[in-house]
Amino acid sequence: MKIQYKSLVFFFLTAMMLTLFAPQELKFKYQFYRGKPWQYELLTAPYDFLIYKPQVILDAERDSLRSTIKPYFTMDETIGAKMQMAWRNDYDKNLKGRLSPVYDHYVVDFLRNIYRQGLISNEDSKALHADDVMEINLLQADRSSNREPLTRFYTLKEAYEMFVEEAPSGLDREVLRGLNLTNYLRVNLTESPEMHRQVVQEELQNLSVSTGMIQAGERIIGTGEIVDAYTYNVLQSFKKTYEERSGGTTLRFTRNLGIFLIIFFLLLALWAYMLSFRPVFFDRLHNSFFVLSLILVINLITELAISFGWFNIYIIPFIILPILVRTFHDSRTAFFAHVINVLIVAMFVPDIYEFILLQVLAGIVSVTSMRRLTSRLQLVRTTFLVFLTYSVVQLSFSLMQDGRVEMGDGLNILYFGVNLIFLMFSYLLVYLMERAFGYVSNISLVELSDVNTPLLSQLSEVAPGTFQHSIQVSILATEAATKIGADVQLVRTGALYHDIGKMKNPSYFTENQGAENPHSKLPFDESARIIIRHVTDGIALAQKHRLPDSVIDFIRTHHGRGKTKYFYNSYCNQYPDKEVDPELFTYPGPNPFSKETGILMMADAIEASSRSLSRHTEEGIKQLIDKIVDGILQDGLLVDTPLTFKDIRVCKEVFFEKIKIMYHSRITYPELKKKAPEGESTTEETQGAV
Q1: 370 and 320 in contact (C-beta within 8 Å)?
Q2: Residues 627, 606 contacting (CB under 8 angstroms)
Q3: Domains of the chain
Q4: For residues 376 and 397, what is the distance between their CA atoms, to the nearest angstrom?
Q5: Which PROSITE patterns has this protein been placed in (predicted)?
Q6: pLDDT tens across 14-50, in order?
Q7: Which residues of 441-454 are buried (b: 16+ CB within 10 A; e: fewer)?
Q8: Distance between CA 222 and CA 42 in Å, rounded?
């Protein structure tokens, strides 16, 4: 089975999963706005439903109810008894006989009365006064409560001052202060927030949420009538009741069937687009899995958020999908996938038109502002443009609907700000997607093409000639890729790494040799084996350093299934009567299979051969390029690439211009002749380099 039809199974399963997690509430089919005409037919109530209070009024009533319920406190009567006992023990032990019994009786009576009144902490007293609470609910042993004025209770400081200042006239104030009554004063009133919350919750549950009822068959609104405040509230109540009705097993099944069919046909449209306009998308099955995974995750998060009301849907970064798809594929695919995703999500959101308008415009901005993700700055710019688009469209939509900007719009802009923060993390997701699906982004290619990376630094030290050759090849290949519309960054990176396998035996390659050629001591077949091995050595080294497969492909294919012709021809000439096995002199391949790998093969062969020219004349360079490219074509090494004859002709022209510039002639500086003394002549030579 072809990959495109295998991928269709993934599209089908994705539609099944999205249907499985879809919100089960019925979707209200009418769109209406306050102050606008009713655009549908006459609407009558199909069943009885309550007219719910507007949320603003309901919130105000709840706030008022909360403010009327006073805090609850409990009194611990054991504390007073313990403190009286502590006083009696201290008096009998230390003060009896030294202090008049009148003082003892006064202290005992005061402690009994003050604890009966109640001692409250200074912090609780201040907090109650700050909230203008003049009464509290005092819990009794039977869990009932009495409303008591706050003036009944004393703080520890107030109790101590009253003990001294309001004592009978016959008692000495200094003696009373010396009794250290603070040792016997403890707070016996503590707040009970649990009871307060429980009572508030019970009262809120008893609060009526409706103002009336619409009877079945009662007229709600007719065509063309203006939706006033009352009718708007009735319609909102009808919508709420309608969406909460499950409708029974049969209705749920038919509704889910409808959801599945719509989702599947939307995904089928995406599949058909890929098949018709991006057939290369189906070269690898994981491409379908990548896009469908993004659609699935975003939709599941949205559906769960709508079903459970965890957070506002505008927090969800829907634009992550076009950003990630654009990073690894093209703009049209990214936007088409985004539109399909938005249409699926729109099936479940409250304000369909507003949602689609916001997301489609933001998707257009994201795709057009980020042609290729190559830097963090580019992503930051895109996310801020998306945030600006969200905000402007949201405010414009409010002005269109209501003629004014409301508080809810400011809250939505706050949600867009959270969305922006999440979009910033798409830079990290690029790395995760690369690892999960085997992609390579322009960001990674830019990082890999830095010549200061460990592998390229090692190449420049171990095989400096090969390093210079790789740089020259990258110049040729990059310019050719630019001219014919190939992936420039991929070609540049692949060219820099294509010969890293030469580091294992650098001296066996011409560009790294000195005066001595080690091949002169080896048989031709052994030399060929060493030369050929730089491909497999390069692949092993690249895999060890975890280079992307798309870069390793340049190492595999830069010689394709070509031969080491120098050693093959020399071997055949040396043994004319011997049957030669061509495989001993043939690279393992495979042949190039893309524009980029085909360009590199030509650039590599031309740059290496150009070094052998004794004179770099225009005619000589042109003949060399024609000879090399014609030989590659005759050997069939480019048959698997999508390169056209026009592409090859353009590449040859680019190679000619670049090679000509690389080996341009230097001018010779003239000698400076000085006027010499009579009978002598002197010439001063100057040297320089252009």
Answers
A1: no
A2: no
A3: 3-25+248-435 (no CATH), 43-66+210-244 (no CATH), 74-203 (no CATH), 442-662 (1.10.3210)
A4: 32
A5: HD
A6: 999 999 888 766 667 777 888 888 888 888 888 888 9
A7: bbbbbbebbeeeee
A8: 4
